[in-house]
Amino acid sequence: MITDNHRIAYRNVVSKYYNFLPEEIDEAIKDFVSILEELGFHPIGAMFFSIISDPSDKVMTAEIFLSIEEDNFNTRSTEQFYFRSYFSIDPMIMTRVMDDFDTKSQDKYWELINYIKRNGLEQRTPVFVEYKRTHAEENYVEMSVGVK
């Protein structure tokens, strides 16, 4: 099921580009968190990423985003980071993956792309993937894309 009029919005977001095998996404996220913590920043939980490469490519290119407590991002690191005091994309379409993310995410990706084509929309952003949790502490994923 696709939901219209979705949006993502976060404050104090730092991002970094990564190239990795799809099954290595957890290592990329851990690396990013580790770098930020070593630099003295405090990630506060909101984590999402955008899929820059073709989803069928062997090596995935993604921009990983993390919200931090700090409202500025000054560092002398040689790493390339991007900071946004406010990050928002609106309007978007969205679908959820409630379980078996590795298997179902590819189908959900194409579901979003086909919805755009069927409804005469224009894709404005890459696909974003947000890890979320229900009130019952069950994990799920929202996949969304900015449209026009």
How would you sum up this structure, described in words?
The chain has helices at 25-38, 101-118; strands at 3-20, 43-51, 60-68, 82-97, 123-133, 139-147. The protein is an alpha+beta fold. The chain has one domain (3-147): Multidrug-efflux Transporter 1 Regulator Bmrr, Chain A. It has a 6-stranded antiparallel β-barrel with strand order 1-3-2-5-6-4. The model has no long low-confidence stretch (mean pLDDT 92).
How far apart lie the N and C ends? 19 Å
CATH topology category name: Multidrug-efflux Transporter 1 Regulator Bmrr, Chain A
Strand content: over 45%
Helix proportion: 10-25%
Number of domains: 1
* Overall pLDDT level: 92
Structural class: alpha+beta
- What is the CATH level 1 assignment? Alpha Beta
Strand order of the largest sheet: 1-3-2-5-6-4
The tally of helices reads: 2
- The CATH superfamily label reads Regulatory factor, effector binding domain
Largest sheet: 6 strands, antiparallel, barrel
Secondary structure blueprint with pairings:
Elements lengths: L2 E18 L4 H14 L4 E9 L8 E9 L13 E16 L3 H18 L4 E11 L5 E9 L1
Antiparallel strand pairs: 1-3, 1-4, 2-3, 2-5, 4-6, 5-6
Keywords:
148 residues, alpha+beta, Multidrug-efflux Transporter 1 Regulator Bmrr, Chain A, 2 helices, globular
